[in-house]
């Protein structure tokens, strides 16, 4: 029996790591696994996961659904739903290798889909809204089925276990991405389970998070007014929906999103030049309920880019390294040095100061 | 001198190896995030190449640790005595709760440097930061000295927001051209008097001896001293006082 938020408390850190190639070069998942390994003790084996962007070029125009099923019945029911709304161009089990430390796995399937034209037209929604509503509905209503990845030309791979083991389990050496993020979990308030591992994803937005959000319930109550449903039993999920809401639905830039979720203190805002002060005041007032408090360092992955952000008090560590066109971001410098001993530059961003990197040609590969 | 190669050795194993070494001079090559190096030790000289992990020199009790590279979080946490010398930058919460010994950082330090530092009897903790410090520098400082040289800052205030919040002892000395504004009410700001300048000058000499630089030129510049404001202190205690 899964225990929900509030029913169990496991005291503890977490580890995050990311690699981003601004020139669009793609690399296998081997180095991101090597990067998270030295931070082993920031996790406790109750969750690890990866997001890779650019991994499905042959299906770049199709949504890639990665789904956990607890039972064959859940699989049958979910597939019926998918078929009812989408054209499935390919489906398969996600390849895994037996791993001594990854056990109790659910059934893990992958579908490349595109919305059925008639369904999409009659819904009067744009394609992304149509797809995101479908994903939220399945995750909220269909017991035993979790669509944990739903973007185009990207994918999330996660499990209960240490991240380096999870990477080996999913055979990430067989995928090539221009952007990788990774997470090692040390659950604080919530149970360790496959769906609760990071990254959290909706469409192509993914979030990995080291920290613990004290504003979770305030954020959840607000975001659920806009059709989102927090079903995955952990705080990071809500950050994913906030980024999707502010970015995809309202059209805020990633910098503006950072200024909302890690809004500076009023005393800091007052010190800014008048136009900046006005801008920050507007964002903080307009989206007061989306201020995320408590310690966090997050990596937000999206198509063509990556944002790193610390909470405004900087209650978690994070460093950024650069070498040529490659950017490395991790909770600890050792995670970067383990895969790139020589860097052109390394620094620790300030609290609430986003680091945003994009592919050179405006997000297209 | 004995050399240990860290590479990906698990921190417990590496620290165990180090404790078995009788030699007082130890060099660690290629540290990759191993935690608690030199923790609690006395009478040793540790030279570390690479990136030592969190909690470097915690509870240090007299050893000297020299790092060629950057250090991560919680350097010298609660250290009692000894020197930690970092040829690079340090992460967050360096010198947390330290009550003796010295930490010299050639570059910058992260958030919460020297928070809860305290002097104790003949112990006097000192943190010297070559570049700039992050926010919450010296928060709740109770004793000792934090000296920020602001090298490469062009005379700008070399710390972040909320510097010295809640401080009630010790001193923070900042090299900058103008008196810092907007500091918390618990903090008094004064330009360093000649006597005060003389009291921290030896640490500038030591800094330049360790990392190079012109000590005389540095000492000739303007310094501001942050000290606790007795008028804004914590008068009301939870305990009963007759």
TrEMBL record, chain A:
Glutamine amidotransferase type-2 domain span: 14-360
Gene3D superfamilies associated with the record: Glutamine Phosphoribosylpyrophosphate, subunit 1, domain 1
Active site residues per record: 14
Protein name in UniProt: Glutamine amidotransferase family protein
Source species: Agathobaculum faecis
Record bears the keyword Transmembrane: yes
Top-level taxon in the UniProt lineage: Bacteria
Alphabetic keyword roster: Glutamine amidotransferase, Membrane, Transmembrane, Transmembrane helix
Entries under PROSITE patterns matching the protein: GATASE_TYPE_2
Transmembrane portions of the chain: 286-309
TrEMBL record, chain B:
Glutamate synthase alpha subunit C-terminal domain span: 23-175
Residue ranges that the Swiss-Prot or TrEMBL entry lists as coiled coil: none
InterPro entries per the UniProt record, alphabetical: Glu_synth_asu_C, Glu_synth_asu_C_sf
Molecular function as annotated in GO: oxidoreductase activity
Top-level division of the source organism's lineage: Bacteria
Descriptive protein name: Glutamate synthase
Taxonomic lineage from the root: Bacteria, Bacillati, Bacillota, Clostridia, Eubacteriales
């Amino acid at each position: 029996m899964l225990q929900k938020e509030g029913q169990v408390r496991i005291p503890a850190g977490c580890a995050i790591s990311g690699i981003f190639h601004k020139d669009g070069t793609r690399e296998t998942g081997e180095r991101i696994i090597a990067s998270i390994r030295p931070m082993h003790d920031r996790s406790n084996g109750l969750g690890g996961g990866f997001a890779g962007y650019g991994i499905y070029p042959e299906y770049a125009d199709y949504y890639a659904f990665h789904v956990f099923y607890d039972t064959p019945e859940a699989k049958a029911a979910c597939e019926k739903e998918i078929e009812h709304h989408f054209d499935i161009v390919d489906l398969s089990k996600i390849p895994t290798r037996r791993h001594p430390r990854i056990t109790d796995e659910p059934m893990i399937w992958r579908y490349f889909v595109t919305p059925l034209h008639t369904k999409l037209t009659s819904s009067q929604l744009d394609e992304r809204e149509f797809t995101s509503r479908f994903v939220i509905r399945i995750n909220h209503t269909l017991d035993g089925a979790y669509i944990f990845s739903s973007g185009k030309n990207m994918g999330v791979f996660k499990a209960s276990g240490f991240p380096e083991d999870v990477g080996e389990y999913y055979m990430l050496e067989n995928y090539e991405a221009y952007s990788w993020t990774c997470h090692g979990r040390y659950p604080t308030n919530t149970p360790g389970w496959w769906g609760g591992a990071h990254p959290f994803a909706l469409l192509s937005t993914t979030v990995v998070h080291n920290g613990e959000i004290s504003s979770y319930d305030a954020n959840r109550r607000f975001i659920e007014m806009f059709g989102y449903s927090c079903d995955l039993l952990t705080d990071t999920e809500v950050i994913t929906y906030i980024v999707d809401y502010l970015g995809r639905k309202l059209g805020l830039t990633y910098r503006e999103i950072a200024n909302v979720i890690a809004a500076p203190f009023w005393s800091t805002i007052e010190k800014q030049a008048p136009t900046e002060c006005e801008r920050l005041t507007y964002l903080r007032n307009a989206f007061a309920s989306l201020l995320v408090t408590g310690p966090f360092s997050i990596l937000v992955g999206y198509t063509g880019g990556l944002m790193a952000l610390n909470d405004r008090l900087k209650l978690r560590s994070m460093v950024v390294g650069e070498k040529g066109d490659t950017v490395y971001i991790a909770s600890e410098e050792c995670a970067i040095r383990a895969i790139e001993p020589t860097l052109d530059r390394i620094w620790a961003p300030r609290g609430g100061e986003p680091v945003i990197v994009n592919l050179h040609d405006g997000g297209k590969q | 001198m004995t050399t240990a190669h860290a590479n990906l050795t698990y921190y417990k194993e590496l620290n165990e190896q180090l404790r078995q070494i009788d030699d007082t001079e130890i060099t660690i090559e290629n540290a990759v995030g191993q935690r608690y190096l030199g923790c609690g030790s006395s009478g040793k000289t540790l030279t570390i190449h690479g990136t030592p992990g969190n909690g470097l020199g915690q509870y240090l009790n007299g050893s000297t640790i020299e790092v060629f590279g950057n250090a991560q979080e919680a350097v010298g946490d609660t250290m009692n005595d000894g020197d930690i010398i970092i040829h690079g930058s340090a992460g967050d919460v360096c010198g947390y709760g330290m009550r003796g010994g010295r930490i010299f950082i050639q570059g910058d330090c992260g958030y919460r440097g020297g928070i809860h530092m305290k002097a104790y009897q003949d112990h006097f903790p000192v943190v010297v930061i070559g570049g700039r410090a992050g926010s919450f520098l010296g928060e709740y400082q109770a004793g000792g000295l934090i000296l920020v040289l602001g090298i490469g800052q062009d005379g700008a205030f070399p710390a972040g927001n909320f510097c010295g919040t809640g401080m009630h002892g010790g001193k923070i000395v900042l090299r900058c051209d103008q008196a810092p504004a907007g500091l918390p009410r618990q903090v008094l700001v004064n330009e360093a008097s000649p006597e005060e300048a003389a009291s921290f000058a030896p640490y500038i000499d030591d800094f330049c001896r360790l990392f190079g630089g012109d000590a005389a030129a540095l000492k000739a510049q303007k310094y501001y001293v942050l000290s606790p404001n007795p008028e804004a202190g914590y008068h009301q205690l939870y305990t009963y006082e007759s």
